[in-house]
Amino acid sequence: MLPLLGIALVIAFPAGAAMNPGGILSFYVYDDDLNTSHRGINQVSTSGLLEFTINGIPIQGPSIITETSQDSGIFVGRLNIPSTINGRPLQQGDTLVITYSDESDYSGNPTTVSKSIAVAKHNTHFSTSAKNIRIGQTFQVRIYDPDFNLDSRNVDSIPTKLIEFRTENGIRATLNNEAFEARTTSLRETGKNTNTFIVTVKMPKEIDGERLKIGADAQLRFTDTTSPSRTSEILKTNIRIGLR
């Protein structure tokens, strides 16, 4: 939830915002003094106004912030979060601070405000909409992973090639194999900033000429390489190939 108007000066992040290494973070500045043209949408240079640091180390920020609508006095900026700082990958606990220097607040005095957000550890969830899946049956593969939510203002995606299908008799393929008849080439985020990704696929009769065995156990494996620690993690979910 964004702050209410009437507060003289505020820096805010969207609800549910997270600092993801390599991602884009939106932020808002509330300062009606920047609303110099009440009939248009203002753009303001950030030079001398905004400073961006991670663990006290300056990083490059956006060159401008843009008013969200005519005469709103609310300005939005988009900050590219680096993957590393001083040559080290960003990790849990690293903190971004945005500092805004206002030459004249509501009382006419100079003031400085800041807002911080830290890289946080997220639990990734990997599941299917069914556990006993018949040949020819469609089902959903779901991933909850905030680290793939690279842009809080747009819908993101996870390539289906990152998910491997394995059977107990040695058949292996990734979900981008045409046998699964995926409706999209990626798991699409269910909405802006939801962190939940879904794709619909069909259980095939055979993969690359090898017939699937009815009643066999199978497994889907998702290799997540986007955690703040930059270590790979394999998530697994088990299913059974059921009868028609």
Subunit arrangement of the protein? single chain
CATH-defined fold name of the largest domain = Immunoglobulin-like
Class computed from helices, strands and strand pairing: mainly beta
Mean pLDDT, to the nearest integer, reads: 87
Strand content: 35-45%
User: What does the main sheet amount to?
Assistant: 5 strands, antiparallel
> How do the strands line up in the largest sheet?
1-2-7-6-3
Shape: elongated
CATH class of the largest domain: Mainly Beta
- Estimated radius of gyration: 23 Å
- What pattern of helices and strands is seen along the backbone? EEEEEEEEEEEEEEEEEEEEEEE
Looking at the overall shape, the CATH architecture of the largest domain is: Sandwich
Number of strands: 23
Describe the 3D structure.
By secondary structure, this protein is mainly β. The chain folds into two domains: 10-118, Immunoglobulin-like (Sandwich), CATH 2.60.40; 125-242, Immunoglobulin-like (Sandwich). The chain is 0% helix and 45% strand. The chain has strands at 10-12, 24-30, 43-45, 50-54, 57-58, 64-67, 74-80, 84-85, 88-89, 95-102, 111-118, 125-128, 132-134, 138-144, 157-159, 163-167, 172-174, 186-189, 196-202, 206-207, 210-211, 217-224, 233-242. Strand 6 (64-67) and strand 7 form a beta hairpin. Residues 1-7 have low confidence and may be disordered.
